[in-house]
Amino acid sequence: MATRIRPVSQRSSLKFYSVCLVDNGFYSLPQSSKRCAVIGGSGFLGRHLVEKLVDRGYSVSVFDIRQSYELPGVSFHQGDLCDKQALLSALEDVSLVFHCASPAPASDDRLLFERVNIKGTQTVIQACIDAGVQKLVLTSSASVVFEGTDVKNGKEDLPYAKRPIDYYTQTKIEQEKLVLKACDQQKGFLTVAIRPHGIFGPRDPQLVPTLVDAARQGKMKFIIGDGTNLVDFTYVENVVHGHILAAECLRADSPICGKPYHITNDEPVRFWDFMSEILVGLGYAAPRFHLPYGLVYGIALLLWLLTWILRPFMSFKPTFTPMRVALAGTYHYYSCERAKEHLGYKPVVSLKEGIKRTVESYPQLRRGA
Ligand SMILES: NC(=O)C1=CN([C@@H]2O[C@H](COP(=O)(O)OP(=O)(O)OC[C@H]3O[C@@H](n4cnc5c(N)ncnc54)[C@H](O)[C@@H]3O)[C@@H](O)[C@H]2O)C=CC1
Ligand SMILES: CC(C)CCC[C@@H](C)[C@H]1CC[C@H]2C3=C(CC[C@]12C)[C@@]1(C)CCC(=O)C[C@@H]1CC3
Fold it and tell me: Which residues pair with 6 in a beta bridge?
């Protein structure tokens, strides 16, 4: 392990310096600050984060509405993050909190998103302050600036979406605003938001399972649009790396306080090339025939309206929602230059390697399995 004084930002007029103990590309903290909590730690990203934190010598409290695994060095606290008393017992002696809980985007349940992502996040902030937590790292989303039209190399200074594409995105915007506004260097409560995009990797319950389900139903024959749109897909370990760097760089004198950071693989890829690689890797055919974007989006919108009207009578979940069609047919890739400059971030797993590990991790989803 080496001690290094590194400029956090050399390009800004003021130079910010932080003293970091650098070990394998990570920053190390004194043992006393190595107690943390992960809210949403039973989820896909949360569990990968917990595993890396344990590897890095942290003792971790997981707070989640469900417990999905057991791990030495990890204590589990089952509860709803809207319940402050339940949170307080998990935050005892904790100085650092990661908040990566959210209802799944596919649930499309406005009231649930508002309750958990907005009111629940207010409760998390208040519980952190009451428990004397010093640092809060939020998992936000790069989608907070996405309105369904092309975003190319989007930077963090893009305005929040005025017309977010769904309730999930709408409440992620409010959530991020709340957490960043709560940052108070004078009072010693420091916050930062990580905005990942298109997280994939082993145990993801969303991307690969949805894709394979669609392929098994014969719905993955078509490419929406001309198929040239570039997007970000980010391997889960890179997202974890970004979170830990942010937590360990977050100090009262650092420029990262109260700011959002894009964390990506820094390798934008054609949406349909990425989908095809996963499908072919699992033994399915790649989509080949093109359909006009406007037509598919229109049909998806009509279907969504229909399911909304019929909701009291029947439940039907279309594969091609307006949100998925927008994501499949537009450019949405983001710059992670600010994270490189301020956090010393660089992806630790390439897209190619990430796809390989992901495909290998789903033997049960292979064609014919
Ligand atoms: N998966 C993706 O591509 C992206 C995810 N994100 C964000 O990353 C975070 C983690 O997402 P994933 O791991 O993919 O989702 P996930 O659904 O696997 O994990 C979310 C966890 O939050 C927990 N949770 C939900 N409501 C709760 C409540 N009321 N109280 C306590 N725990 C609750 C769930 O039980 C689950 O374990 C979320 O904040 C999401 O918005 C951001 C960008 C992309
Ligand atoms: C049926 C196919 C057209 C699409 C199948 C794959 C999709 C399920 C995924 C492709 C892009 C993904 C994505 C997200 C969820 C899964 C996809 C729609 C997010 C919405 C997850 C939450 C976020 O914050 C943004 C993500 C953007 C990309």
Answer: 18
